[in-house]
Every structure is written in C-alpha cells, then in structure tokens.
Amino acid sequence: MAVGIHSAADARRLARRRLPWMVFDYIDGSAGQETGAARNRAALDDLELTPRILRDVSDRTLAVPLFGQTAKVPFGISPMGMCNLSAPGADLMLARLAARENVPLGVSTVASTAMEPLIETAQGNAWFQLYFSGDGVGTFKLVERAKAAGYETIVLTVDVPEVGRRPRELRHGFTMPFRIGPSQFIDFALHPRWSLEALFKGKPTMANFDMPGYDFDRTESRAKADWETLARLREMWPGKLVVKGVLDVDDAVALRAAGVDAIQVSSHGSRQLDSAPPPISALAQIRAALGEDYPLFYDTGLRSGEDVVKAFNQGANFTFFGRILQFAIAAGGEEGLSELWNVLKTETSITLAQIGQTSITTAERN
C-alpha cells in the first residue's frame, strides 16, 4: 500500500503527525534561532537551472564514479545518530537501501545499530563516521574496530568541537542515552502508535559503545581535536579518509595538503553554528580553490533532485541526504523510504532532461 510520499515535504508532514514532538524536533531542529538553515535554503532556492531545448536526452543515467566504483545514483545516506528513533529498525532499512543502490551508508558514531551488522547488511556499502571526543582514547578504539569490521572509508566530522545548542531539542529534555521522564511520557502517550512499536522493540541505544572501558557522553567536549589528531588518524587509517564539516577555503586547502582523500562541505545540517555561511555558497568557493580533480562531497539542506543537480553545478562530485530519509521512514517504514528514494531519483532524472543533459557528471559548473 502506497504511503503517499510525492516529495520530501510530504515525508516531513507525515512524520510530524506520527512522531512524538521530542523525536520530531530532535530530527528536524537546527542550531540557535534556525536562521542558518533558512539562509542555506534560501541560497539553494536562489540558484537557477537553465532549460535547454532540442537535445536528445532520451538515454539518461544517474550513475557517478565514487572512489573507484560506480554509485547507481549521485547521492548517498548521511551519517545520522539514533535513526531507530524514527522507527524500529531504521538503520537496517537504510543499510538495505545502500546495498540495493550501491551507495554509501554513513554509519554514525552514535548510530542506534552497531557498525558490524550495518556494513554486513549494506554489503560493504558503508562508511564509518567518526567523532573525536575527550582525550581520544575511545575514538581510536573505534577506528580499530571499524578497520576490523571491514570499513574502507572513515569520515571524520570536524565541525562539532562542542555540541551546538538546539533549542527545540533542549525544550523537550532530549538526551542521549535516551531517557524518559514525566514530560516525555505524556508526549509518548499522545503518540501511541510510535510508542507501542518502540516499547515492543526496546528503546534505542547508542550501539557502538558496548565496549570495555568506553562510556560515551554525547555532551563531552570534542575541542581537543587538532591537526595532530588528523595526522595520527591519517597515519593509522589505510583506507579512504573524508573530512566532513568544512566551510572555509583555507581549511580545505590545508586538508588536501594533509593527505585527506576527500572533503565534505557541510554545516552539519545547520545543527551547529547558526551564523555559519550557507554551505551551498561555500561549495563553489572551495571547488574553485581546489581545482576540478579533487573529490568534493556535499550535504546540508538538500530536499529534492533539483537540489542535487544544483550541488553538482556548484562543484560537488557526490551528495548526501539526511533527515528527510528519517522522515520517510517515520511516515511509512521501509516502503516510505523506498517511495521517497524513488521520488528523488525521478526528480534528478527529470531535471537533467529539462536542462538538456544525459548525465549529472556533465553538469556545467557555475
């Protein structure tokens, strides 16, 4: 039975109706007054795509090269913490999607399913996202564990020296590990469908921290990470190293010089610094500084296939969707996720046809 998702906005609307307020605002919320999210959305909306006519665009492809392989579509799945809050088993739904589409599943440090079953379910199409925290001892234990599990790509997130203040999340008393107090109990009682499913499956936990001597604290400072931390990670990690959360041109140039394999332009879904510049605007500047050949990825604020094409026009080699995928799962489980994914593919393909292109890799840089 169809869920009725015809756009990312549909998925969000349905998710808002079905999720407890605390969970919805955790997924949907941004930093501060959320003006950063609005500015990035406005910057995306201001970008134009020019229709071109009388070009044979009957044979189109969405496939793109990615680290020596071929992804079926030009977008993957951003690392997102505690996805199983959107619905029990959400992490595994995303992993199965990654396997089918041969795209990377970002496995968050704070995922609600352990890294080992996720890379297995994704049939190897998984990248482990790493947070540095505290003195780094536990962080580098996770690196070794990811290596043992078969991960070939690490994504170091660098834009969270301290967890950004997200007022919507704070008003509900949201914490990780997940705790239920009186206000949360009332919230859940008013959303019985979600609550009964969560009760039956058990409350989500941060599954990657079932390790001796490592008790993860989401609020623990990550401020000690520096360029020496990066150098140590580069030395110990034999696979691809992506650095995520870059908005400054000088930082991007320095990362390339430090041996990073790719940079992901991102403002953490606008969840960190409300005053950050629109990432979509920074993308073109960083591409100009790094040249055409350096791998450059993008996330933050993408809501449609047209957005994906715009990101490629600004210099991206690959893009990632985040919270809208959780909304689709909340709206209709695995079927809802498949519906939205197919919408995104269709939107991207139709956009290419409208602008006279048969492949997104031939997108004209602006």
UniProtKB/TrEMBL annotation:
<dbReference type="InterPro" id="IPR000262">
    <property type="entry name" value="FMN-dep_DH"/>
</dbReference>
<feature type="binding site">
    <location>
        <begin position="322"/>
        <end position="323"/>
    </location>
    <ligand>
        <name>FMN</name>
    </ligand>
</feature>
<feature type="binding site">
    <location>
        <begin position="79"/>
        <end position="81"/>
    </location>
    <ligand>
        <name>FMN</name>
    </ligand>
</feature>
<feature type="binding site">
    <location>
        <position position="166"/>
    </location>
    <ligand>
        <name>glyoxylate</name>
    </ligand>
</feature>
<keyword id="KW-0285">Flavoprotein</keyword>
<dbReference type="InterPro" id="IPR012133">
    <property type="entry name" value="Alpha-hydoxy_acid_DH_FMN"/>
</dbReference>
<feature type="binding site">
    <location>
        <position position="157"/>
    </location>
    <ligand>
        <name>FMN</name>
    </ligand>
</feature>
<feature type="binding site">
    <location>
        <position position="129"/>
    </location>
    <ligand>
        <name>FMN</name>
    </ligand>
</feature>
<dbReference type="Pfam" id="PF01070">
    <property type="entry name" value="FMN_dh"/>
</dbReference>
<feature type="active site" description="Proton acceptor">
    <location>
        <position position="268"/>
    </location>
</feature>
<feature type="binding site">
    <location>
        <position position="26"/>
    </location>
    <ligand>
        <name>glyoxylate</name>
    </ligand>
</feature>
<comment type="similarity">
    <text>Belongs to the FMN-dependent alpha-hydroxy acid dehydrogenase family.</text>
</comment>
<feature type="binding site">
    <location>
        <position position="266"/>
    </location>
    <ligand>
        <name>FMN</name>
    </ligand>
</feature>
<keyword id="KW-0560">Oxidoreductase</keyword>
<feature type="binding site">
    <location>
        <position position="131"/>
    </location>
    <ligand>
        <name>glyoxylate</name>
    </ligand>
</feature>
<protein>
    <submittedName>
        <fullName>L-lactate dehydrogenase (Cytochrome)</fullName>
    </submittedName>
</protein>
<feature type="binding site">
    <location>
        <position position="271"/>
    </location>
    <ligand>
        <name>glyoxylate</name>
    </ligand>
</feature>
<feature type="binding site">
    <location>
        <position position="244"/>
    </location>
    <ligand>
        <name>FMN</name>
    </ligand>
</feature>
<feature type="domain" description="FMN hydroxy acid dehydrogenase">
    <location>
        <begin position="1"/>
        <end position="366"/>
    </location>
</feature>
<dbReference type="InterPro" id="IPR037396">
    <property type="entry name" value="FMN_HAD"/>
</dbReference>
<feature type="binding site">
    <location>
        <position position="268"/>
    </location>
    <ligand>
        <name>glyoxylate</name>
    </ligand>
</feature>
<feature type="binding site">
    <location>
        <position position="108"/>
    </location>
    <ligand>
        <name>FMN</name>
    </ligand>
</feature>
<dbReference type="GO" id="GO:0016491">
    <property type="term" value="F:oxidoreductase activity"/>
</dbReference>
<keyword id="KW-0288">FMN</keyword>
<dbReference type="GO" id="GO:0010181">
    <property type="term" value="F:FMN binding"/>
</dbReference>
<dbReference type="InterPro" id="IPR013785">
    <property type="entry name" value="Aldolase_TIM"/>
</dbReference>
<feature type="binding site">
    <location>
        <begin position="299"/>
        <end position="303"/>
    </location>
    <ligand>
        <name>FMN</name>
    </ligand>
</feature>
